[in-house]
Amino acid sequence: MSTRLPRVGLSACFFHADPQRPIFKGKTLLYVEESMAHYVAQAGGLPLMIPTAAGAISLEAAVAEMDGLVLQGGSDVCPRSYGEEPLDPRWEGDHLRDLYEISLIRAFRAAGKPILGICRGLQVINVALGGTLFQDITTQLDGAREHRNWDVYDQLKHEIICEPGSWFAKIHGGDSFTVNSVHHQGIKDLAPDLVVQARSVSDGVVEAISLGPEPKDDDFLVGVQWHPEFQTPEDRDLLSREPILSRFMDAVRRRVEAAHVGS
Ligand code: MN
């Protein structure tokens, strides 16, 4: 049995070159948000950011060294990544990051390694598998509730309801929960192979997805629209952030052990 820590690749967030930025002027920054790294670490995974490809280290070469992938939140997905033009310049998103993350999703799936998408991560999974997004929920979905509020940020909360009999309801031991909400984009057309696990109450916005009704170890692909990593022990009213991560980490560990036995 392997004794090394499971290595969880984190997709990079991008600060593109900005001549006005006071540090690393004009340079592109790739970064990890701290609570995401801590969320993974608290479950026993070693969080390692996967840089964009350089030299001999292609994305595939990096993926070969990792045991699973967590897609971080952050900037919007570019509508061009799913065949639309931005309806507003503010919704241009980050096409370069989309291409990088879609390549990561393909490479991890090809290697049979688990993937967990958070917020933007859920959205980019849907796009990678052929789905589309609302560029802006408020303007494109009649009767939409508020899903993002800059002033209160991750303190904005709403109810979700699990699909009846779903894997998600099973692992959380219930059907109806409260989650935080920091997004203004969301799934419009669900990709063909994805299954909805939970939706926002009142407007039906997709809040959790999986590949197939129940994730499999060798093709584990799960996404949530909220930010479990932002939750603190004070957030007792929120859905526990542990079950999803522990299922992901279980799948990661089983893949590590299977690879070890096979070597
Ligand atoms: Mn929401």
List the helices and strands and how they pair.
Elements (H helix, E strand, L loop, with lengths): L6 E5 L1 E3 L13 E3 L2 H9 L3 E5 L8 H7 L2 E4 L23 H16 L4 E4 L1 H9 L4 E2 L2 H4 L16 E6 L4 H6 L3 E5 L5 E2 L6 E7 L5 E6 L9 E4 L17 H21 L1
Parallel strand pairs: 1-4, 1-5, 5-6, 6-13
Antiparallel strand pairs: 2-3, 7-10, 8-9, 8-11, 11-12, 12-13
The protein binds manganese (II) ion (MN).
Overview in brief:
This protein is α/β, with parallel strands linked by helices and 263 residues long. The chain has helices at 34-42, 59-65, 95-110, 120-128, 137-140, 167-172, 242-262, and strands at 7-11, 13-15, 29-31, 46-50, 68-71, 115-118, 133-134, 157-162, 176-180, 186-187, 194-200, 206-211, 221-224.
Query: Taking all residues together, what is the mean pLDDT?
Result: 95
What is the N-to-C order of secondary-structure elements (H for helix, E for strand)?
Answer: EEEHEHEHEHEHEHEEEEEH
Number of strands: 13
Q: Any idea what the CATH architecture is?
A: 3-Layer(aba) Sandwich
What is the end-to-end distance? Answer: 11 Å
Q: Give every kind of bound small molecule, once each.
A: manganese (II) ion
Q: How big a fraction of the residues is strand?
A: 15-25%
The Cα radius of gyration reads 18 Å
Helix content: 25-40%
CATH superfamily placement:
Class I glutamine amidotransferase (GATase) domain
Count of domains: 1
Please report the first level of CATH classification, the CATH class.
Answer: Alpha Beta
Strand order of the largest sheet: 4-1-5-6-13-12-11-8-9
